[in-house]
Amino acid sequence: MSFPEDPRLIEAKAIPMTEMVDRLGIAGLKRMANEMVGPCPLCGGRDRFGINLRSNAFLCRKCDLRGGDQIALAMGVLNLDFKGALSWLCGDQPAELDPREVERRRQLAAEAERKQREEADRYRRRAVSDARLIWKKARPGRLGVVRAYLLARGITSDMLPEIPEALRFIVDHPYVKKVGREYVTAHRGPCMVAGILSPAGELTAVHQTWVDRAPPHGKARISLEGESLPAKLVRGSKKSGAIRLLTPKGADTLVMGEGVETTLTAMAAQPFANAAYWAGVDLGNMAGRMQRVKGRRYSGLPDMSDADAFVPPLWVKRLVFIMDGDSDPKMTRAKLECGLRRAMALNPGLQGQIVHAGAGVDLNDVLMDGAPDGEGCDD
Fold it and tell me: Is 50 exceeded by the pLDDT of residue 4?
């Protein structure tokens, strides 16, 4: 398509496609690598519409809405001609839609969001059911490969005389990965299974760590079609949950690291009296959603509308987060501060603290090299 000479062309084509999606009110799209995929803004076809964020090309495989840039997208979605779309994009003449068309689009967007919520709910229920089946199949950790794996991570039986009940194992467990629309078994082998409990104490997910069959029984090396895969996977709904490794009666302090190994290392060292030790599964779960503040990449401030973030029980008077040093320190600290501030806002009087493992390592890496320094959170 050839366009007339118009200086507004440069302005229109400079608009990011993600901004175009917001301006056009296209609902329900999900970011997948370099694409946004979801319901078509015209026909509502679920998962049939996609925008390539590199080329700006878009296509609906149902109604054939297609094009290659921002102007074409505005033309197709708003049913405008070229001049009208350009004027709408550059703000010269905001397009006015027929009220009936506005209502039709509102209904399409609402229907697309409803279907997306239903699909997400179905997926969650299926994932939680899978997690419970895996947990039921697993055997107590004291009987099998868990001890060997922890020993390979430097956690000896002297340091940890009893394997926590939160840890189990399966002798021959499939590692399943979704490739396209199909599920492929990339590996089978022994696996440590950790139970993730919701705030109500219900098992809603499992954390799986595949273990090498050969001594010293560290993490298994897994690959598929030449791509290395992480040896750890979560199945179920981990949101707001935790792996409760130790919860002594009368505890008033909760020490939490991201992973099982980091938290067990702290537990073995016993740096805090009268403390429970839970693993938070990952940093995002511990932190919850963070506020976006202009001019700051990481604000460290919690978005209090996030109802799925981890919040400690009311018996916790002191919350200690272990800060691993093997990832971006500014990002990691901001997220931990975000989680602590959320917890302190919801539980007045709670004290928050960050313990740093050291630059470039996690606590399990340093293990017996001495107790890390503690840092308070002043909020």
Answer: no
As a 3-state breakdown, the chain gives helix, strand, coil percent values, each rounded to 5, of 30, 25, 40
Beta pairing class for 35-38 and 30-32: antiparallel
CB atoms inside a 10 Å sphere around CB 14: 9
Q: Judge contact between 208 and 234, C-beta under 8 A.
A: yes
Same fold, 8-96 and 243-379: no
Domain boundaries, the chain: 8-96, 243-379
Q: In sequence order, what are the residues at sequence separation of 6 or more whose Cβ sits closer than 8 angstroms to the Cβ of residue 198?
A: 204, 240, 241
**Quick one: pLDDT at residue 10?**
78
Kindly state the average pLDDT of the residues 266-278.
90
By C-alpha distance, which of 134, 105, 114, 116 is closest to 25?
A: 105
pLDDT value, residue 379: 34
The answer to whether domain 8-96 has CATH 3.10.170.10 is no
- Residue 24: both structure tokens together: 């056009």
Reply yes or no: is the peptide bond before residue 372 cis, omega within 30 of 0.
no
For the whole model, what pTM was predicted?
0.71
SS3 204: strand
Buried b / exposed e over 58-92, threshold 16 CB at 10 Å, is: bbbeebebebebbbbbbbbbbebeeebbbbbbeee
- What confidence tens digit (pLDDT) does each residue in 219-256 have? 999 999 888 999 999 999 999 999 999 999 999 999 99
Classify domain 243-379 by CATH architecture: 3-Layer(aba) Sandwich (3.40)
Q: Is the pLDDT of residue 11 over 50?
A: yes
Q: Which pLDDT score, from 0 to 100, does residue 175 have?
A: 97
List the alpha helices (DSSP H) in the chain: 8-13, 17-24, 70-78, 82-90, 99-137, 145-152, 260-269, 283-287, 329-346, 363-366
